[in-house]
Specification:
Blueprint lengths: L20 E17 L5 E16 L3 E5 L6 H8 L7 E6 L2 E2 L5 H9 L1 E4 L13 H11 L10 H10 L16 H13 L5 E5 L7 H18 L2 E6 L2 H7 L2 E6 L2 E7 H6 L4 H8 L6 H6 L40 E4 L2 E3 L5
Bound molecules: iron/sulfur cluster (SF4).
The site of iron/sulfur cluster has 13 residues, from loops.
Amino acid sequence: MPSLTNVSSPPRGSSDSLAEPLVRVEELTVRFPAGRAGFWGQEKLYLHAVEGVSFEIGRGETLGLVGESGCGKTTTGRAILRRVPLDGGRITFDGEDITHVEGESLRRLRRGMQLVFQDPYASLNPRLRVLEIVAEPLLVHGVVGRVRHAEDRVAELLELVGLPPEHMFRYPHAFSGGQRQRINIARALSLEPDFIVADEPVSALDVSIRAQVVNLMQDIQERLGLTYLFIGHDLSVVRHISHRIAVMYAGKIVEIGDRDEIYEDPKHPYTKALLSAVPIPDPKLEATRKRITIAGAFPDLLRPPSGCRFHTRCPIAIERCAHEEPPLEEKARAHHAACWLT
Ligand code: SF4
């Protein structure tokens, strides 16, 4: 378990919104038990999903969290919401240490922190009307005693997400993917949270619909002053909505900084490779730019690589990378990366 006594300040961006962090994560570590190995089963195995992750999110800010599948993005988001057990680290929300909050206090805390799920089809109960779906958190938290008492609030929320209030009496099957995601967002907003973890909220939607939902999330953020952790793998979408970007690889943050800094001057070889795969709208530029291919397979997180976790796939790795882990350090103003060579 990482020590809490030597926690360095989490990397911060330069945007003014960061004057007051709403969320602060220090040395967050999550490991999942994964059975036993060895002839006698003497070795306990753990999946090292998130290891020593630190960052802050300013009030009203969006931090984009990117990386390939299995890198720990979703686990990080859920850990902040206290939906998975932590193995180490500290989480501060609105100035309060919430790392060990339990019971009624945790339930109260969750009113202020909500999750928007990836799959708008699987996340809505097909047997409930929109009214019951959006009102559910209000009932669970005792804000209303009966579903019908929530009708005004649900109507207001549906209007906020661009749906006609009368749609509250319909069932999910009557809606398109984009509309369902709007319903999900309405449900997440029902308890007036300050912070939303949006876990790949548009990746299951048609490309044509994605921009609409992302724009809606931006509008709502401006109107309500929300703070987002926006998890995604579509780098164009993440760039559009985020103020800052954090790049994860194999359970660790390898780069974090202001959005434009990261996209225009990436420091880490992994970020460079990810960005080299993003299509450029200009066909001439697209034809001339160089793609960086990442060779090899994503590492086994039951036994993560020593040193820099990226060394088994890094095109510029040196001997030292296999033995010594590079710290996440400032490479440019408000721009941190973990690499010995940048
Ligand atoms: Fe590549 Fe070494 Fe930098 Fe890791 S520390 S990204 S292996 S050069």
